[in-house]
Structure formats: structure tokens, C-alpha cells
Write a structure and sequence with these properties.
The chain is α+β, with helices and mostly antiparallel strands. It has 9 helices and 10 strands. Strands 4, 5, 6, 7, 8 and 10 form a 6-stranded mixed beta sheet that branches. Strands 2-1-3-9 form a 4-stranded antiparallel beta sheet. The radius of gyration is 23 Å and the shape is elongated.
């Protein structure tokens, strides 16, 4: 009787070895313990007693033994990573994390299937890494980290860490404006009377719209309407971020018309926004982008 083939699987690399390989490739790394969290600060730095980074507003490790201050401990220096001061942490570590912003990267952390579906319809393709419940979409370029920019979506870049889950697939692309717009909080409403929206005119000599076909724009407006309609909370902020995303993509080429803007305003008003709030959000978005 033929014996079934034995499939041999190489054991996963120890966290320290993985960390050194990632550091050599330019990713600032740190160990994570059970629960996927960083190791606690040393006694010198406990509760910010060291005076270095009580609020973790600066990058880079402090001058103390061990990987302190969470993301700020991340480093590419092999002499630090493999030092005796870090040895006990690596013995307990269950995985490796990296500081995306320190490597000039941004991770869009999609926590569930609904968030993944949204990203596939909305965001430009880039490198994708599967996670336990969703995906990490990784872009070239750093930005401010913000949690819960929409349901199931976090942005991890500066002052944050992300688990290393493998190299992923696909070609990494530049950080798009639509991702940056997710992290922008709406400024205070402009205290002025409602005003007629002036559609930006195309640049002289521009010729054909860079979006190629009207279908591209119509699809974008439809997705924006859907995003507003599906908002379950923070409707005002969602409306503003959606207006900002639409304008960042279509606001400079002159392809937006009053009909497109009316569709967005109608969707917002159906969620309880007043015409005044719609006008203020649109004006604030244009001002943010310098339109």
C-alpha cells in the first residue's frame, strides 16, 4: 500500500531573526508580546518618569535598556535589536511589529470583510497583506495615524506600529489623496450665508479630462453617495470627508457639474444634514484643498 506523502513545513522564523531581516531591508522593528502589544516600559521610563516621551510625540528609542515606548522603540540598528538589553523581550516575543511611518509607509488596516469590500471599490490598488480577519493595504508615503476613520478601517503610519504578517502581494503604489482625506477632521463650519457652488473650471489647454470617460466620474459619485448613505454615526464628519475625497480626485479638472454636486447634497440631506451644513462642508473641503 502506498504511503501518503509527508508534507514538510519549515517552522516559522524566530522573531529575532525576522526582525533582523526586516531591519536590514529598512523597516524599523520592535517585538510584540502575547496580545499583540508592545512590552511595557522599563522602571526608569514607567509612567513617563524618564521625561522622554510621556505622550510619545517623538520618534526613536530613549536612552534606556530594553524596547521602551511602544512604536518609538522601533529601530533598524542591528546592534540594538540583538543587544543583551533586548534579549529577554525577544525570548518572550510572539511576533514582530514595525513602524510604518519610520519607513515612509502607510498601512490601511481593514478589519473585516465589509471594510475590504469598501477598499476594493474605493482605493487604488497597492500591496496587500492578508490578516486574521481582513487585509493590510500598504502605500508608499507617510501620514498621520488615525483609528476608526470609518467602520473597520484604521490608518497606521507615523506614531503607530503594525504587525509584520509577510511581504504580501501586488505592487506598492503612492499614498493617494483619498487615504489622506480620511484622516482630515472637518474644520469649524464657515459662518456665512449659503452660497452658490462654483464648479472649478478646467485648466486652459487641458483638453480631454484626465479621468478619460464620464463613466469613471459617475462611478465615483455613486460610491460617494453610497458612503454617505451607509454612514451609521458621525454623519457630519463622513459627509465632509466624502466631499474632500471627491474634490481631491475631480475638483481640479473641471469635470464636476452642478448635477454631480446636487447628487452629493441630496444624499447628505437624506441623512439629516441641512442645506447650510452641506454648503459649509463643501466650502471647507475646497478651502482645505486650495480650490
Amino acid at each position: 500500500m502506498t504511503q501518503p506523502a509527508v508534507i514538510r513545513r519549515d517552522p516559522p522564523a524566530p522573531p529575532l531573526r525576522t526582525a533582523l531581516e526586516l531591519a536590514a531591508a529598512g523597516l524599523p522593528v520592535l517585538p510584540l508580546r502575547h496580545g499583540k502589544v508592545p512590552f511595557g516600559n522599563c522602571r526608569t521610563c514607567a509612567a513617563g518618569a524618564c521625561g522622554g516621551r510621556p505622550n510619545m510625540k517623538e520618534a526613536g528609542p530613549c536612552q534606556c535598556p530594553g524596547p521602551c515606548h511602544a512604536w518609538a522603540a522601533a529601530t533598524t540598528d542591528p546592534s540594538v535589536i540583538a543587544s543583551p538589553a533586548w534579549a529577554s523581550a525577544w525570548r518572550e516575543a510572539v511576533t514582530v511589529a514595525y513602524h510604518p511611518g519610520g519607513a515612509g509607509l502607510t498601512v490601511v488596516d481593514l478589519d473585516d470583510s465589509a471594510a475590504v469590500a469598501w477598499a476594493r471599490q474605493t482605493l487604488p490598488a497597492t500591496r496587500i497583506v492578508p490578516t486574521t480577519r481582513g487585509e493590510h493595504w500598504i502605500y508608499r508615503g507617510a501620514m498621520r495615524s488615525v483609528n476608526a476613520v470609518r467602520d473597520g478601517v484604521d490608518i497606521k503610519s507615523t506614531m503607530a506600529y503594525a504587525r509584520w504578517l509577510g511581504p504580501g502581494t501586488g505592487t506598492m503604489t503612492a499614498l493617494p489623496d483619498i487615504v489622506r482625506a480620511l484622516a482630515v477632521k472637518e474644520p469649524p463650519a464657515v459662518r456665512s450665508a449659503p452660497q452658490t457652488i462654483t464648479v472649478p473650471a478646467p485648466a486652459i489647454g487641458e483638453g480631454v479630462c484626465p479621468h478619460r470617460t464620464p463613466t469613471y466620474l459617475d462611478r465615483g459619485i455613486a460610491m460617494a453617495e453610497q458612503r454617505i448613505t451607509e454612514a451609521r454615526e458621525q454623519v457630519h464628519a463622513t459627509v465632509y470627508r466624502t466631499f474632500l475625497a471627491v474634490l481631491s480626485t475631480h475638483g481640479r479638472c473641471g469635470c464636476l457639474t452642478e448635477a454631480h454636486i446636487a447628487r452629493l447634497f441630496t444624499a447628505a440631506q437624506a441623512k439629516g444634514e441641512s442645506p447650510r451644513h452641506c454648503t459649509d462642508a463643501w466650502t471647507n473641503a475646497r478651502n482645505t484643498l486650495g480650490l
